[in-house]
Amino acid sequence: MSAITIRRMAENDLEKVTDIEKEVFSDPWSLNAFKTDLNNDMALPLVAEFENTIVGYTNLYIVAGEVQIGNFAVAPGYRKRGVAKLLMDEILKTAAENKCASVFLEVRESNTPAQSLYKSYGFQQIGQRKDYYSSPRESAIVMVKEI
After folding, report:
1. Which entry of 106, 109, 121, 132 is annotated as an active-site residue?
2. CA-wise closest residue to 61 among 89, 31, 40
3. How confident is the model at residue 12, as a pLDDT?
4. Does 66 qualify as catalytic in the annotation?
5. Distances, alpha carbon 43 to alpha carbons 33, 46, 73, 142, in Å
6. pLDDT tens across 61-82, in order?
7. How far, in Å, CA of 83 to CA of 103, rounded?
8. Across the strands, what pairs with 58?
9. How far is CA 1 from the centre of its chain?
């Protein structure tokens, strides 16, 4: 696979990002939620691009020396091609550049592939948020990686 690039999300990416969001998540973020993050000084929305196509994205929030991963997705047709690893590498690089002490995220209890990715990067489960997700209702596992 030729080069995948990671860059800041732009307004003209939002249609493709929300298409992936609807395909991947049962309770997707709205286009407006992504658009709001484009103008939020604490947010860093990123996309993974391959041959002028958005193949993945993440929304980060950098607050008080911590990074919170608000959203993280790879288009189904591009999974197992290293896109998630490139995004995670960029997240950890961003955390280090911003002198953040830790990176937090929530993941569905049933999403074992995502949990495996996070664990491979040294994330550890620190808690659970009961009934955090809807459609279907499910608990979230809270994970953290100290930088």
Report:
1. 106
2. 40
3. 97
4. no
5. 11, 10, 16, 20
6. 999 999 999 999 999 999 999 9
7. 19
8. 46, 72
9. 22
Q: In what order do the strands lie in the sheet with 138-146?
A: 4-8, 43-50, 53-63, 66-74, 102-108, 138-146, 124-133
- The per-residue pLDDT for 2 is 64
**pLDDT < 50: residue spans in the chain:** none
pTM, 2 dp: 0.94
H or E stretch at 114 = helix 112-120
Residue 28, preceding bond cis, omega within 30 degrees?
A: no
- What are the chain's domains? 4-104 (3.40.630.30)
Residue 135, pLDDT score: 85
Please give the structure tokens belonging to residue 107: 């993941």
118 is catalytic: yes
The sign of the CA dihedral 70, 76, 77, 80 is positive
Q: Say what the pLDDT of residue 31 is.
A: 96
